[in-house]
Amino acid sequence: MHNHVLVESDPSTIIDLSSVGVHSALLNHSRLEELESTMTEWVNSPIFYECHDRKLAFKLLTISLAHTYIFGRFTLTSYAAQIYLSLRQLNPLDDQLGEILKINSSVFQGELFTNNVYNKPGDCHAHYYDMKMAYEKVAGDINAIKLFEHNAIEYGVNHAFSSSSLWNENMTVYANYVEEITNHALPVFLVVLISEKAIWEGYNIILDQLNEHESFDLFRVFMRRHIELDNDEHGPSTVLWFNYYLDKLKPSQRELDRAMDVAIQFIKLRIKTYRY
Ligand SMILES: [Fe+2]
Question: Ligand 1 mean position to 226 CA, how many Å?
Answer without folding.
Answer: 6
